[in-house]
Amino acid sequence: MPLRVLSVASELYPLVKTGGLADVTGALPAALAAHDVAVRTLLPGYPAVLARIEGVSPALALPDLFGAPARVLAARAGDLALFIVDAPHLYARDALYGHADDALRFAALGAVAAAIGRGAVAGFIPEVVHAHDWQAGLTPAYLANGDGGGRPGTVMTVHNLAYQGKMPAGLLATLGLPVSAYTMEGVEYFGTIGFLKAGLRLSDRITTVSPSYAAEIQTSEGGMGLDGLLRARAGVLSGIRNGIDTAVWNPAIDRHLPARYDAAHPDLRAANKAALQTTLGLAPEPACPLFGVISRLTWQKGMDILAEALTTLIGGGGRLALLGTGDAPIEAALHTLAAAHPGRVGLRIGYDEALAHLIQGDADALLVPSRFEPCGLTQLCALRYGAVPVVARVGGLADTVIDANEAALAAGVATGVQFAPVTAAGLDAAIARTLALWREPRAWRRLQANGMAAEVGWDRPAAQYAALYRTLVGQV
Ligand code: ADP
């Protein structure tokens, strides 16, 4: 019998996605199936989800889910087995987050997860409940404050500690939590109900998405107020790097690429460059190294640092193709930069999966100057696509790219360029190093080839999650 795991998340690729969380929750179930783990994912019933699920059947009636009746639906999306919280009063809106009642919306997700965890759906009684990010953070709290019967083991995964879900303390009774839960050992967090804090305090195991980030979040610099709690729980905290879906991200069959290629034929990427230059209005200059960026435009991602380093990049003969969406002031600053460098900086503000693939399939290098990065996925895609990653030496970026220092070059193992500190000067130096490497075709080919051979899929991380789940079975 496979081990049964209920994964609880607010996003899942390909149904709903705003970031890497969706990629992870969407890809992990198939990878875990190979390790004899059967995953079902519990998702809010957003309109985009309800419109795309198949094989729908009612699994559980909920007479009053924070103010109105609701249902749990069992459903499928491709090979993904799902439970959907069908609660129009909470989820029938287009934007996923940012609503006045987000506390209720995501408490409901946790409460339903706990009910299923305690066996409310006879057809699927999980042995482990795996909660992702603050939106699912109350799941362990509801399980801990239940009726005292048996409960499954719990895992809380932090995809980004910056998003903590701090909600007004006055909602405690509304959320159905007892007064006794409002303590430092429970859900209380600096005078609020801390959704993520609750999950981190009350789950049996904590994971985050890379070993380096697991260490960083235990420091006062990286802990964002939770480092003390995380140090206290270091014995149950581990880092498991994310993978990418190597079927979705495969340059040999990628329908978004005019020219498909594999590790034996990276030269074919040149044809893609022409397509991207046309798409983004870049001057057609195949002899210039093209740097790509695919990113949310936020302080975390270091886009202001990139803006400062642009002179070095352009001055050194480089070109920039940037795809991103996010904070309005950063978008405005990037528009100004693009206007100042016509034909040399191609900018697309927006979310565009096809263009993300095209950039990976033709950029010579991919820049990721994040101030912190729990794992990062774009550098993993870049490795697989032969776009040499140039990354800040933080979190998962530090764990997944081998810097082209002298020793790594001599040993023939380098896959990219790392830089520290994460400042404009640091990025300037990294860009200069990258340009120098690009001018040595043999060294550059080697970097590309090493990257394309690097392990970026889910096999290893899935084995680690499966092993972690098995430590919980029969232990709780
Ligand atoms: P985060 O989750 O912090 O945004 P990650 O690197 O973990 O960063 O994951 C980002 C994911 O979203 C990647 O799959 C990346 O390709 C994709 N992505 C980010 N911005 C865009 C965009 N503007 N258009 C298309 N895909 C994007």
Structure, explained:
The protein has 476 residues and is of the alpha/beta class. 36% of the residues lie in helices and 20% in strands. It has helices spanning 20-33, 47-50, 88-91, 102-117, 139-144, 195-202, 211-216, 227-232, 269-280, 303-315, 328-340, 353-360, 378-385, 395-400, 406-411, 424-438, 441-453, 459-472, and strands spanning 3-8, 37-44, 54-62, 70-77, 80-86, 128-132, 153-158, 166-168, 188-189, 192-194, 205-208, 237-239, 290-297, 319-326, 345-349, 365-368, 388-392, 417-419. A nine-stranded mixed β-sheet has the order 3-4-5-2-1-6-7-11-12, with helices on both faces. Strands 15-14-13-16-17-18 form a six-stranded parallel β-sheet, sandwiched between helices. A three-stranded antiparallel β-sheet has the order 8-10-9. A hairpin with a 2-residue loop joins strand 9 and strand 10. Helix 10 packs across helix 16 and helix 13 packs across helix 17 (441-453). The longest helix is centred in the first third of the chain and has 16 residues, at 102-117. The mean pLDDT is 96. It binds adenosine-5'-diphosphate (ADP).
Write the topology of this structure:
Layout: E1 3-8, H1 20-33, E2 37-44, H2 47-50, E3 54-62, E4 70-77, E5 80-86, H3 88-91, H4 102-117, E6 128-132, H5 139-144, E7 153-158, E8 166-168, E9 188-189, E10 192-194, H6 195-202, E11 205-208, H7 211-216, H8 227-232, E12 237-239, H9 269-280, E13 290-297, H10 303-315, E14 319-326, H11 328-340, E15 345-349, H12 353-360, E16 365-368, H13 378-385, E17 388-392, H14 395-400, H15 406-411, E18 417-419, H16 424-438, H17 441-453, H18 459-472
Parallel strand pairs: 1-2, 1-6, 2-5, 6-7, 7-11, 11-12, 13-14, 13-16, 14-15, 16-17, 17-18
Antiparallel strand pairs: 3-4, 4-5, 8-10, 9-10
Helix pairs in contact: 10-16, 13-17
The chain binds adenosine-5'-diphosphate (ADP).
